[in-house]
């Protein structure tokens, strides 16, 4: 489990394209501290498994399913990425519960800077819109953010200077893709209520 609090801005150092997958090599001095084979590291919000680790770099394999559901397929050598290690039991939950399982991708639509923050408008797939609510939580490229405005096909977030300086959302432009993970609690509530309604319909 992750919390959506990015630990560092890493970099893709190598990309190997396979028949139905990709192998990425990424640099991250912070997240590689103590890393070992089999550990999990979130890359732009996608939970990946460490295959190899040497110095401040690690290697991770990405299956076709992940490439199809996320924006990782657009990464190239030199791409900057948000990195986060899993939270440890007993640590503070700084953001919200993040699984590292991307639900879909959005696109940066617009950026509106102001003196102390920046409003970013992001497109929202129709199948995810019911899970996104004003002042609710959403993960964008692995960053735990609060929804400012929730529309049918878009939402906005307000970014403070720290987020702009230390994550990919500080450098992404309109048209760039982002990974989205909605609040898992909303999905569980929907499922439980749906099952309850179905059961009541049968008994009646």
TrEMBL record:
CDD domains assigned to the protein according to its UniProt record, in alphabetical order: Riboflavin_synthase_like
Signal peptide as annotated in the record: none
Lumazine-binding repeats: 1-96, 97-193
Involved pathway(s): Cofactor biosynthesis; riboflavin biosynthesis; riboflavin from 2-hydroxy-3-oxobutyl phosphate and 5-amino-6-(D-ribitylamino)uracil: step 2/2
Lumazine-binding domain ranges (all copies): 1-96, 97-193
Entry annotated with the keyword Nucleotidyltransferase: no
Protein name as catalogued: Riboflavin synthase
Organism of this sequence: Streptomyces tunisiensis
Lineage summary: Bacteria, Bacillati, Actinomycetota, Actinomycetes, Kitasatosporales
